[in-house]
Write a structure and sequence with these properties.
Blueprint lengths: L11 E5 L6 E6 L6 H8 L4 E7 H16 L4 E7 L8 H13 L7 E6 L1 H13 L5 E6 L2 H7 L4 E6 L2 E8 L4 E5 L8 H17 L2 H9 L1 H5 L3 H21 L15 H11 L6 H18 L5 H13 L11 H8 L12 E6 L2 E5 L4 H9 L5
Parallel strand pairs: 2-9, 3-4, 3-5, 5-6, 6-9
Antiparallel strand pairs: 1-2, 7-8, 10-11
The structure holds nicotinamide-adenine-dinucleotide (NAD), the ligand O=C(O)C(=O)C[C@@H](O)[C@H](O)[C@H](O)COP(=O)(O)O and zinc ion.
The site of the ligand O=C(O)C(=O)C[C@@H](O)[C@H](O)[C@H](O)COP(=O)(O)O has 11 residues, from strand 8.
Cofactor: Co(2+); Zn(2+); NAD(+)
EC number: 4.2.3.4
Subcellular location: Cytoplasm
């Protein structure tokens, strides 16, 4: 039998070139029920551990399960509570034990069906179970389609720090169906837009202008605009990941723009209080103000981001939290080297720089200047 071409499941394909770890992101509309044929076009499978959360499962577990079973795949369905607190040691242990009870072996695969929480968690289970299982991403939030399903950062949180336990474990493929975003709650959809804005600032000023010019269609989830946003974001992330898969040269760290502040905000306010994208929005403006304080960025450019994020109904003000706690969580950021904080600082649209030697007091001023006046 001639194997099916994986691009048959997509209207657009973005390749992530990583030598033997290369894979395709297949982007389409209405292609979710093809997931079984898509996976078997990539490798032969007899057992899949399908990991999802309770909200996503309501909508999409049955069609995905049926599609896998139609390919004679035995499916172990593992559903965790929705939300950031599931990216935990306790949930991981539960999943490891259930996978073992369901006779997982080294030829089993893991399928992540959900948003970034499920992608990060299921990817971590895949990376650790029997020392590594093949892994497929089916992202169902905008944030996961434009960011978390691509690039292989997987992991879980500890109470003290976000994503602090994890590894790089690339998926064998990413299947994106933009039609699944129709059921995504508005707040979650808006949250994903923050990572989209991030790409415009760090890499693509024209893309930023496109977002500024299309606020209404974006808010209305116009399908043509959505396809463009998802595909462009995946292309940009794929280029960065291809050049610096494990964040060793510093290039990949640009994807962390705003995230030192963002992760401190998520951790100190309590996981799930701020959605990740909401915290990214607040964090990007802190990083922009930091750029101003360091004399490399101008206030008009900060204001442009502020305007776009506001138009996209994202939070922009810094909430009043314990400042010592914020600084102490920032000191656990994964960009810290030899005990020194490093920030992604914007110089202009399309150019951000990984910057060391930022005095903590200046970093904190960029935070406190963001309090609502
Ligand atoms: N690995 C990476 O590179 C990377 C990148 C960015 C973010 N992240 C991580 O991603 C996580 C955030 O991901 P998220 O924003 O997708 O959150 P999420 O996974 O919690 O999903 C958001 C909510 O939407 C629900 N949902 C998902 N898809 C749905 C759909 N189609 N219809 C209806 N409801 C749906 C979920 O059940 C959940 O309640 C954070 O933990 C963040 O750290 C990782
Ligand atoms: O893929 C990356 O690299 C990113 O930094 C993307 C971020 O949007 C994402 O939130 C990531 O999980 C943050 O990584 P971390 O290493 O700071 O935990
Ligand atoms: Zn992020």
């Amino acid at each position: 039998m001639t194997p099916t071409n994986p691009s048959a499941f997509a209207s657009q394909t973005v390749h992530v070139p990583l030598s033997e770890r290369s894979y395709d992101i297949s982007i389409g509309t209405g292609n979710l029920p093809e997931v079984g044929r898509w996976i078997t076009s990539l490798r032969s499978v007899t057992h899949a551990v399908l990991i999802s959360d309770a909200n996503v499962a309501k909508h999409f577990l049955d069609p995905v399960n049926e599609s896998l079973e139609a390919e004679n795949i035995r499916v172990t369905k593992l559903v965790v509570p929705a939300g950031e607190p599931s990216k935990s040691v306790a949930t991981s242990q539960d999943l490891w034990e259930k996978a073992i009870a369901n006779r997982v072996d080294r030829k089993s695969i893991v399928v992540a069906l959900g948003g970034g929480v499920i992608g990060d968690l299921a990817g971590f289970i895949a990376a650790t179970m029997t020392r590594g299982l093949d892994f497929f991403q089916i992202p169902t939030t905008l944030l996961a389609q434009v960011d978390s399903s691509v690039g292989g950062k997987v992991g879980i949180n500890l109470p003290a720090a976000k994503n602090i336990v994890g590894c790089f474990w690339q998926p064998q493929g990413v299947l994106i169906d933009t039609a699944v975003l129709e059921t995504l709650p508005r707040r979650e959809y808006l949250s994903g837009l923050a990572e989209v804005v991030k790409y415009g600032v760090i890499l693509d000023p024209e893309f930023f202008e496109f977002l500024e010019a299309n606020v209404q269609p974006i808010l209305n989830r116009n399908s043509t605009v959505l396809q463009k946003i998802v595909a462009r974001s995946c292309e940009l992330k794929a280029q960065v990941v291809a050049e610096d898969e494990r964040e060793t040269t510093g290039l990949r760290a640009i994807l962390n723009y705003g995230h030192t502040y963002c992760h401190a905000l998520e951790t100190v306010s309590g996981y799930g209080e701020y959605l990740h994208g909401e915290a990214v929005a607040v964090g990007m403006l802190c990083a922009s103000r930091l750029g101003e304080k360091l004399g490399v960025f101008n206030s008009e450019a900060t204001q442009r981001q502020h305007n776009l994020l506001t138009a996209l109904e994202l939070p922009v003000d810094v909430p009043k939290l314990n400042e010592e706690a914020i600084l102490s969580v920032m000191q656990r950021d994964k960009k810290v080297e030899h005990g020194k904080l490093r920030f992604i600082v914007p110089h202009c649209f399309g150019k951000v720089v990984l910057t060391s030697d930022v005095p903590s007091a200046v970093a904190m001023e960029a935070w406190t200047d963001g309090y609502a006046s």
